[in-house]
Structure formats: structure tokens, C-alpha cells
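Example for tutorial group B:
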């Protein structure tokens, strides 16, 4: 499990470094298939996503639009509270099944071209709603980046801007989510610490390699490849949970 998980984190962070998103979409179902418990997967994914995005924030700090990032984080707070209730009320096997299904739905949504750009009139409400859904998904499955990614894909002026905004959201949102899991749910981080000691350096390396070679690869083709990998992993994890 340790070795397979290391390979999974390395590959997922590399893919995310190339296309700017989708770490959780690849890592969540793959780590569940490896045999890592859901509670541990959530903590590992949140912390790996947090640490690997710090460098992106520093490098692209001038491209960050603070307004949508603040709205997404603000909306995520009540969502996290709902997510805590869901984790207590719903059996783990059901959450695992929902996580795989959510991966499939998210891949299908991300693969569709954006038809319209959200108007400035309703964007604040949409950002708060996306943050709220992201907060629920973050606590339960670590897929907190999916709703913000769907929203920012329509609004961002460039790919760099979207990546920078998402990175800032992950750094702040993942910090709050892990803190809430520990304080609000009494999550035990000890089972995740030995895994993080091995997997986190691999995640940092994978992210750095992905960012380095990303500009040399055909983005549309590689983006489809990432979504295809996530789709296969999601379907397989649904079947396993079923």
C-alpha cells in the first residue's frame, strides 16, 4: 500500500501540475483502490493539495484575483459544517460509493466546453454556492476543488489566472478543512502521518515536474488524458464500493 500510494500521489500531482487541477480526481479513487481508508485519504489529499499549491501561489501571486477566492472560501465555511454532519450521519461505505460517483460526474462536467461566461451580476452568488458545495465535498471526499474549477473555467481570463486562483483557494480552504476535521470531528491524524512522510515529498516532486514540463506538452490532449484516467479510476472505485 505504501509503494502503490507513493506511485499514485506522484502520478496524480504530476498530472495536476501539467493541467493545473484534477489532483483529487485522480488520487481519491486510486488511493481507495489501493486500500487506504477513506478518512486517511481525505486528510492525505487535503494536505498534499495544500503543500503542493504553496509554490504555485508564490510563483503566480500577481495573477491571483482575491475577490473570487475570498467568495469561494467564505462560501466553503457553512459547507464544511454540513460536510461534518454528513460524515457522521452517512455510513463510510455509502460515502465511498458517492465519492466514486462524484468523480465520474465531475469528470463529465469538466470535459464539457463552457458555453457562457457568468455575468458579474450573479457571479458572487455563484461563487458562494460553489464554495459551499466545495466545502461539503472537501470534508467528505477531499474533492473540494471541483465546483470552484467548474466556475473559474468560465470566468478566468487565462489559464494562469485560473490556476493561481485555484491554488490560493486550496491553500486557504484545505487549511481550514483539516483544522475543522481535527477540532470539529476529532479526526486522528496519526494514521496519516507515516504515509505523508513518504508521499508528501513525492507529491512535491510530481508537482514540480508537472509544472516544468507542462508548457512543452499539448494541453488539450493531456487534459483529456487526465480526465480519462480520473474517469476510469472513478468507475472502478464505484464498482469496488458497490
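The residue assignment follows.
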Amino acid at each position: 500500500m505504501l509503494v502503490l500510494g507513493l506511485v499514485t500521489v506522484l502520478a496524480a500531482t504530476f498530472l495536476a501540475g501539467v493541467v493545473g487541477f484534477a489532483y483529487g480526481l485522480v488520487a481519491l479513487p486510486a488511493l481507495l483502490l489501493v486500500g487506504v481508508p477513506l478518512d486517511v485519504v481525505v486528510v492525505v489529499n487535503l494536505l498534499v493539495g495544500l503543500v503542493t499549491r504553496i509554490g504555485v501561489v508564490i510563483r503566480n501571486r500577481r495573477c491571483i484575483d482575491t475577490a473570487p477566492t475570498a467568495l469561494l472560501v467564505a462560501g466553503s465555511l457553512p459547507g464544511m459544517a454540513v460536510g461534518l454532519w454528513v460524515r457522521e450521519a452517512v455510513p463510510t461505505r455509502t460515502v465511498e460509493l458517492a465519492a466514486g460517483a462524484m468523480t465520474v460526474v465531475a469528470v463529465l462536467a469538466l470535459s464539457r466546453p463552457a458555453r457562457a461566461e457568468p455575468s458579474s451580476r450573479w457571479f458572487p452568488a455563484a461563487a458562494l454556492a460553489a464554495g459551499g458545495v466545495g466545502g461539503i465535498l472537501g470534508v467528505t471526499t477531499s474533492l473540494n476543488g471541483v465546483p470552484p474549477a467548474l466556475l473559474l473555467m468560465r470566468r478566468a481570463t487565462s489559464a494562469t489566472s485560473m490556476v493561481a486562483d485555484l491554488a490560493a483557494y486550496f491553500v486557504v480552504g484545505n487549511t481550514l478543512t483539516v483544522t475543522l476535521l481535527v477540532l470539529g470531528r476529532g479526526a486522528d491524524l496519526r494514521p496519516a502521518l507515516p504515509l505523508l512522510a513518504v508521499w508528501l515529498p513525492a507529491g512535491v516532486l510530481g508537482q514540480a515536474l508537472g509544472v516544468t514540463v507542462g508548457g512543452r506538452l499539448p494541453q488539450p490532449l493531456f487534459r483529456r488524458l487526465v480526465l480519462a484516467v480520473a474517469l476510469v479510476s472513478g468507475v472502478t472505485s464505484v464498482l469496488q464500493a458497490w
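The first helix runs from residue 2 to 19. Compare this with the pattern of hydrophobic and polar residues in the output above.
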